[in-house]
Design goal:
- The chain is α/β, with parallel strands linked by helices.
- It has 4 domains: 151 residues, OB fold (Dihydrolipoamide Acetyltransferase, E2P) (Beta Barrel), CATH 2.40.50.460; 251 residues, inorganic pyrophosphatase (n-terminal core) (Alpha-Beta Complex), CATH 3.90.1640; 109 residues, Roll (Diaminopimelate Epimerase, Chain A, domain 1); 79 residues, Winged helix-like DNA-binding domain superfamily/Winged helix DNA-binding domain (Arc Repressor Mutant, subunit A), CATH 1.10.10.10.
- It is built from 22 helices and 21 strands.
- The strands form 5 sheets. It has a 5-stranded parallel beta sheet with strand order 3-2-4-5-6, sandwiched between helices. The chain has a 5-stranded mixed beta sheet with strand order 7-8-9-11-10, sandwiched between helices. It has a 5-stranded mixed barrel with strand order 14-15-16-18-17.
- β2, α5 and β3 form a beta-alpha-beta unit.
- It is globular.
- 39% of the residues are buried.
- InterPro entries: DDH_dom, DHH_sf, DHHA1_dom, RecJ, RecJ_C, RecJ_OB, SSDNA_exonuclease_RecJ.
């Protein structure tokens, strides 16, 4: 087991009724009811543009439209000021394209991520104050009180479009469009989504030809793929026509007619982002707006170059961060706070995500820079609200913003040590060892005989999959495996009989399991239809394996003592060495390792197991894993 398996709270009422009404497998009907209310199911399964809400549900929309129309009619200059990430870039591009169609005098500006920072920048505004009459923000501005005040004092009109949480006070803008502060029906629009609603109101249309830009920004910003976001992404990705997106897709050998949210999240989005991280994001807005073929061809290679450079920088920071972690006592480290002068502030957020995933702890990475103020980025793990916890020590920060899973901040170098101590103590008091072990939520439990093409096709009706609408994860019990083998280096493959024939199972990066899995196992994974040479076959993409609990239930204390003494006497050991030297079964050993890790008796680093010298005497009965598997 790589994870602790936790079933989701299941909605049991009306499952049969919903399954029959929408022709769904009962397990899929149950999943749908867990994700949306019964009244929303029709829209969820059929995310048509007709289900979009009126943009005039934003309280200030009419006011914003009147201001913009007046500036167009009077040929006054409009500046679109967007954020430097994919959400801001695509939202800015969308608004500029629409305003140009309406013959507006419009320009745009994306601040530099490193030099200018997030949000409205006073110095930039002062340098450009005579070049615009109206400024419209995209994906920023809701906390820019002083900057807005400055603009108003200079007799500029200000429209803020944003989706971030506001502070205690709102900026004194002429109009604010933000679903977080309005009575708007859906609160989770991305920045590009809010800009899209403004564009729809300006043109009195759904702008289907520009929806691809909105979809890319929405997916890249990791907002829930539910409600309006689901409609935007479903329709935007099936109709990609922006020449920049088409060329980016070609460059990475994808088919524009088969683009999924995962392609945007992990392939297309990072390439667009790399320009904002390492160069001038205004260049890519120009490409999106003008769509000049010769310039696109030239810039596609530059984008690829910037993305490769970003990956190299990210790889180096990741390597250096892990070197630091190797010197730490992870059993008494509940949050990883690391920093260096040379770490690029544009990529530390990506690295923080990787480290949080690997070590299953909250992470703050800090670019210390040359002056006394450093910039940082943090990522959390499920169950720990990073923004809430860091905000308790906001007096140590110069600036702090974010949400449950991510924060961005600036801090004086002299405060980093104190912050590390206070956050570590705070998180230690709020979590247990059990909370620092990766958990995975299971959508439904079925028997192997329940797997069919109809079931998988029903699962696919829940697409597009993404944040808060993940691909359903199924648990299969008592799977009788057949012919386990290693493929592709370190991937485990086997088959099992579901009563109608054999189904293949692929377990990526799980080759080590081959030596100790038994023939009767439980698995969790994604149900898929594999199309190979135009032949369809059923397949399970396995996420984790659990040998039968009954095989562990008779484990005795002497098994624990034996493994404990082996690790203690050898100072450090790998799993393979334990398997070779221990008389206990491999199944027992893996279970004992999990219990020891939870209780802080040992810790794992680079595939080696170390004894924790500072661990106090603890009872196995204090382990939630032990009680779950062995207890009554």
């Amino acid at each position: 087991m790589k994870y602790i398996w936790t079933p989701k709270n299941t909605q049991k009422t009306n499952v049969k009724k919903v399954a029959e009404k929408y022709n769904l497998n009962p397990s899929v009907a149950k999943i749908v009811l867990n994700r949306v209310s019964e009244s929303e199911i029709k829209k969820y399964l059929n995310p048509h543009l007709k289900y979009l809400y009126s943009p005039y549900e934003f309280a200030d929309m009419s006011r914003a439209i009147k201001i913009i129309q007046s500036h167009i009619e009077n040929e006054k200059n409009i500046l679109i000021y967007g954020d430097y990430d994919v959400d801001g870039i695509t939202g800015t591009s969308l608004l500029v394209k629409v305003l140009k169609r309406l013959n507006a005098e419009v320009d745009w500006l994306i601040p530099n991520r490193v030099d200018d920072g997030y949000g409205l920048n006073l110095e930039i505004l002062q340098n450009r104050i005579d070049k615009f009459d109206l400024i419209i923000t995209v994906d920023c501005g809701i906390t820019s009180l002083e900057e807005t005040k400055y603009l108003k004092n200079k007799n500029k009109r200000v429209i803020i479009t944003d989706h971030h949480l506001p502070g205690k006070e709102l900026p004194k803008a002429d109009a604010i469009l933000n679903p977080k502060i309005d009575d708007y029906k859906y609160k989770e629009l991305a920045g590009a989504g809010v800009a899209y609603k403004l564009a729809c109101a300006l043109t009195d249309s759904n702008l289907e030809d520009l929806l691809d830009l909105v979809a890319v920004g929405t997916v890249a910003d990791i907002v829930p793929l539910l409600d309006e976001n689901r409609i935007i992404v479903k329709n935007g990705l099936k109709n990609i026509n922006n020449k920049v997106l088409i060329e980016l897709i070609k460059k990475v050998n994808l088919n524009k007619n088969e683009i999924k949210p995962a392609h945007i999240s992990f392939i297309i989005g990072p390439r667009i982002n790399s320009v904002g991280r390492l160069a001038d994001a205004n260049k890519i807005v120009k490409l999106f707006v003008e769509e000049k073929t010769d310039e696109i061809s030239e810039w596609i290679d530059i984008i690829e170059e910037k993305n490769n450079k970003r990956k190299d920088i990210e790889k180096q920071i990741y390597y250096e961060a892990r070197k630091k972690i190797k010197k730490m006592d992870l059993n008494h480290t509940y949050i990883l706070i690391l920093g260096e002068k040379e770490w690029h502030p544009g990529v530390i957020g990506i690295v923080a995500s990787r480290i949080a995933e690997k070590y299953h702890r909250p992470v703050l990475l800090i670019s210390k820079g040359e002056n006394e103020t450093a910039r940082g980025s943090g990522r959390s793990i499920g169950g720990i609200d990073l923004y809430k916890i860091t905000n308790e020590f906001k007096n140590l920060f110069e600036n702090l913003g974010g949400h449950r899973q991510a924060v961005g901040f600036s801090i004086k170098n002299s405060n980093i040590s104190e912050l590390r101590k206070k956050l570590n103590k705070k998180i230690k008091n709020e979590v247990e060892g059990y909370d620092l072990i990766p958990k995975i939520k299971i959508d439904s439990k079925i028997n192997p005989g329940d797997i069919s093409k109809k079931l998988i096709k029903d699962v696919n009706r829940l697409k597009p999959f993404g944040y808060q609408n993940p691909k359903p994860l199924y648990e299969l019990n008592s799977v009788q495996i057949n012919e386990p083998k290693i493929v592709g280096g370190n991937h485990l493959k086997f088959s099992f009989n579901n009563g109608s024939g054999y189904i293949n199972a692929i377990c990526f990066n799980m080759g080590e399991y081959k030596d100790y899995i038994i023939d009767n196992i439980d698995i969790i994974g994604y149900l898929e239809i594999n199309n190979y040479r135009n032949e369809e076959s059923l397949q399970v993409n396995v996420k984790d394996i659990r040998n039968h609990i009954k095989k562990i239930a008779n484990i005795e204390r002497k098994n624990f003592v034996h493994v404990y003494n082996l690790i203690k006497n050898n100072r450090k050991m790998s799993r393979k060495e334990l398997f070779e030297k221990s008389s206990s079964s491999k199944l027992y050993i893996d279970f004992i390792i999990k219990v020891f890790e939870e209780l802080g008796i040992i810790f794992r680093l680079d595939n080696m197991l170390y004894m924790n010298k500072n661990c106090e005497n603890v009872s196995f009965e204090k382990s939630k894993i032990y009680n779950y598997v062995v207890g009554d």
